[in-house]
Design goal:
Helix 1 (3-59) runs antiparallel to helix 2 (66-88). With 148 residues, this protein is of the alpha+beta class. 54% of the residues lie in helices and 20% in strands. The protein contains 2 helices and 6 strands; from the N terminus they run ααββββββ. It has a 3-stranded antiparallel beta sheet with strand order 1-4-5. A 3-stranded mixed beta sheet has the order 2-6-3, with no helix packed on it. The protein has helices spanning 3-59, 66-88, and strands at residues 91-93, 106-112, 122-127, 130-132, 135-138, 140-145. The radius of gyration is 25 Å and the shape is elongated.
């Protein structure tokens, strides 16, 4: 074989090795991204515990006590820190632009009348939904407008 043939063969081997390494890197990145997504889902369970505690405090009227307000503020500070961590990892709340309901990202939990809004639009979000990189982590729970 000539030197040119040897070089062609070496370049071909290097090219194939480069493709193999790029595929391996891509697989590793995807695996890592999937792991981060699963960890974010776990953090959403912690967030849900904060939300449950916050709702329970309000329902019981515990937020009326001056002594309890300090504890509640600390609880809410921890919840906000958790939301900041989730945001750093690309987790965002599900939004409903112009009140348009997206059945792939939300679950309807109720309907109420509102003469100022169009039938079927999102009146309020009962529970936030979250996405990460276009992957749904948790559906939102929404109340829609239903005028009789």
């Amino acid at each position: 074989m000539s030197k040119i043939d040897d070089l062609r063969e070496e370049i071909t081997k290097l090219f194939e090795e480069n493709i193999r390494l790029n595929n391996w890197i891509s697989t590793q990145e995807q695996s890592s991204d999937n792991q981060v997504g699963e960890i974010c889902k776990d953090f959403l369970q912690v967030l849900e515990a904060f939300e449950w505690a916050e709702d329970s405090i309000h329902e019981r009227g515990l937020d009326q006590s001056r002594i309890c307000k300090g504890a509640i503020d600390r609880l809410l500070t921890a919840k906000e820190k958790l939301l900041e961590v989730l945001e750093r990892y690309g987790v965002k709340k599900v939004n409903f632009p112009n009140g348009v309901m997206d059945a792939t990202k939300a679950q309807i939990v109720g309907a109420e009348p509102d003469d100022e809004k169009e039938e079927g639009t999102v009146l309020r979000v009962q529970r936030d939904g979250f996405v990460r990189k276009d992957k749904l982590l948790r559906k939102a729970e929404v109340v829609l407008v239903k005028n009789d």
